[in-house]
Automatic annotation (TrEMBL):
<dbReference type="GO" id="GO:0005737">
    <property type="term" value="C:cytoplasm"/>
</dbReference>
<keyword id="KW-0489">Methyltransferase</keyword>
<protein>
    <recommendedName>
        <fullName>tRNA (guanine(6)-N(2))-methyltransferase THUMP3</fullName>
        <ecNumber>2.1.1.256</ecNumber>
    </recommendedName>
</protein>
<keyword id="KW-0819">tRNA processing</keyword>
<dbReference type="InterPro" id="IPR000241">
    <property type="entry name" value="RlmKL-like_Mtase"/>
</dbReference>
<feature type="compositionally biased region" description="Basic and acidic residues">
    <location>
        <begin position="155"/>
        <end position="175"/>
    </location>
</feature>
<dbReference type="GO" id="GO:0043527">
    <property type="term" value="C:tRNA methyltransferase complex"/>
</dbReference>
<dbReference type="GO" id="GO:0030488">
    <property type="term" value="P:tRNA methylation"/>
</dbReference>
<keyword id="KW-0820">tRNA-binding</keyword>
<feature type="region of interest" description="Disordered">
    <location>
        <begin position="15"/>
        <end position="37"/>
    </location>
</feature>
<feature type="domain" description="THUMP">
    <location>
        <begin position="167"/>
        <end position="286"/>
    </location>
</feature>
<dbReference type="Pfam" id="PF01170">
    <property type="entry name" value="UPF0020"/>
</dbReference>
<dbReference type="InterPro" id="IPR004114">
    <property type="entry name" value="THUMP_dom"/>
</dbReference>
<keyword id="KW-0694">RNA-binding</keyword>
<feature type="region of interest" description="Disordered">
    <location>
        <begin position="145"/>
        <end position="175"/>
    </location>
</feature>
<keyword id="KW-0963">Cytoplasm</keyword>
<dbReference type="GO" id="GO:0000049">
    <property type="term" value="F:tRNA binding"/>
</dbReference>
Length: 503
């Protein structure tokens, strides 16, 4: 049985009894009411990998996808019965059900008129079906976790227990304070839109619900009160209002319509207002925590999102029995994601830093323990291993690797731009040695595009660039390069031998 099918069965079966008990006091069951209903689901994905996510949706759900002009979002239609399977997608970060979509919203000329429209918008929308979907979603999603404010201590703990790529212990302690300020870089794609304002409404009004239908499901979710928040994501240059103003006035409209209590942290319902130029989409969030938060328990300064790791792996189209290597693995996000999704391949994680290798090994161990607990039996392990090595002198046979997938140092949090000018050519040269001529592939992520282009220009006889995906990494413009190994055999010259110094 596949991991996806297992997850679906657990989500639906394990929580069915709880869901039935919670429904006993109500007059109608939202599952029966929504049977056969088709809804539009929106998903945020790593920017640049929208097509990859759309392909996965078509492959696993059989649904066609619309890629939003607002980068980092896709939309697809499903039956409510497939909702649990949507949560098992590997390429999506967050999910929401679409309440209504305005492809060409006509904004008024003045700010006052626009905000007045937002004040009246909630009463004009059809909320019943999306709210039923949201209610069904709460019956099988993970137990709500308490949201904790990020403190300096927690940031320091992440720094000390995370990926020590190319840093010794002193360096990690030194940068623990910087990690608090640069937390957006620690977790790639936390804010995927390049020029996007994100604001959340906070309020404190409370009143009784005037809609009897709303009361029935309201009492089941949180007896006595439903708490909500409105989050506005705005991108575009021609708006006469801010995201904060839109969230405030639309949030007031939602509060007046449902008589809910607004609460930024301990909310039951999160209403989304996504505005991109003239496109306006209202939705209800189906995930409390991003789906990319999986696999990794020991984090580091440049831990890669699992969803981005999946996208990079999918680019290289792994085939059964492929040997897939991440020579600069850090915490092991890429090979761990690969071993989880492509278990018919063998994945090798390596790094020059012993701290990073130790964290990768700990992440592998944690995943094995998790799998054993889920299956309630002894696991035979995963097709993955971790090793410490020098990227410029890999202990691998020439032509023994099918695929190389790695996140190269940007020269910002790891290494330096100056070191990259020597490191990148040496890396590409050693990768060309171990990669199988003719069929070998490499997927490399870097923000130091100028240095990479220079290094690749001197390696045209062994590497051919096939495709480039432009991505946004925590506000940094980066690129994912898909390279193919040419049929030319690797020849190690004496001059190059002299340059093979440990990194």
């Amino acid at each position: 049985m596949s991991d996806v099918q297992e997850a679906v069965d657990q989500l639906l079966d394990v929580n069915l009894q709880e869901d039935q008990r919670s429904m006993q006091g109500s007059e109608s069951d939202p599952r029966s009411e929504s049977e056969g209903l088709r809804v539009t689901i929106g998903a945020t994905v790593p920017t640049g990998f929208e097509q990859t996510a759309a392909d996965e949706v078509r492959e696993k759900l059989g649904s066609s996808c619309k890629i939003s002009k607002d980068r980092g979002k896709i939309y697809f239609s499903i039956s409510v019965e497939s909702l649990a399977q949507v949560h098992c997608l590997r390429s999506v970060d967050n999910l929401f059900v679409v309440v209504q979509e305005f492809n060409d919203y006509q904004f008024k000329e003045t700010k006052e008129e626009v905000l007045k429209d937002f004040e009246e918008l909630a009463g004009k929308l059809s909320w019943s079906e999306p709210l039923n979907v949201w209610k069904i979603n709460t019956s099988f999603k993970k137990k709500k976790t308490k949201r904790k404010k990020i403190s300096q201590n927690s940031s320091k703990e992440k720094a000390d227990n995370g990926q020590g790529d190319r840093l010794d212990e002193k360096d990690v302690k030194k940068e623990s304070t910087e990690n608090v300020l640069d937390s957006h870089i620690l977790d790639y794609y936390e804010n995927p839109a390049i020029k996007e304002e994100i604001s959340t409404l906070v309020g404190d009004d409370l009143a009784s619900c005037k809609d009897e239908n709303d009361e029935s499901w309201k009492g089941e979710v949180n007896p006595g009160v439903v708490k909500f928040r409105v989050t506005c994501n705005r991108a575009g240059e021609k708006h006469c209002f801010t995201s904060n103003e839109a969230a405030r006035d639309f949030g007031g409209s939602v509060q007046d319509h449902f008589k809910w209590k607004a609460d930024m942290t301990n909310f039951d319902v999160e209403v989304l207002l996504n505005i991109h130029d003239s496109e306006v989409i209202v939705g209800i969030a189906l995930t409390e925590e991003s789906l990319h938060r999986r696999n990794i328990t020991h984090f580091g300064p440049t831990t890669l999102r699992s969803t981005l790791a999946y996208g990079m792996l999918r680019l290289c189209a792994p085939q059964p029995t492929d040997i897939i290597v991440d020579p600069m693995c850090g915490t092991g996000a890429i090979p761990i994601e690969g071993a989880t999704e492509w278990s018919n391949c063998f994945h090798l994680a390596g790094d020059n830093n012993p701290l990073a290798v130790n964290r990768a090994a700990n992440n592998i161990s944690s995943l094995l323990t998790k799998n054993q607990m889920k299956e309630s039996k002894l696991s035979y392990g995963l097709p993955i291993d971790a090793i410490q090595w020098d990227i410029c002198n890999l202990p691998l046979r020439t032509g023994s690797v099918d695929v190389i997938v790695t996140d190269m140092p940007f020269g910002k949090r790891m290494g330096s731009k100056k070191k990259n000018w020597n490191l990148y050519p040496a890396c590409l040269r050693e990768m060309s040695r171990v990669c199988r001529p003719g069929t070998g592939r490499a997927v490399l992520l870097t923000q130091d595009k100028k240095c990479f282009a220079k290094a690749l220009s001197g390696m045209g006889h062994v590497w051919r660039k096939v495709h480039t995906v432009w991505v946004n990494i925590g506000g940094l413009h980066a690129a994912v390069y898909l390279l193919r190994r040419t049929p030319q055999a690797f020849v190690q010259s004496s001059e190059q031998d002299g340059e093979r110094t440990p990194w």
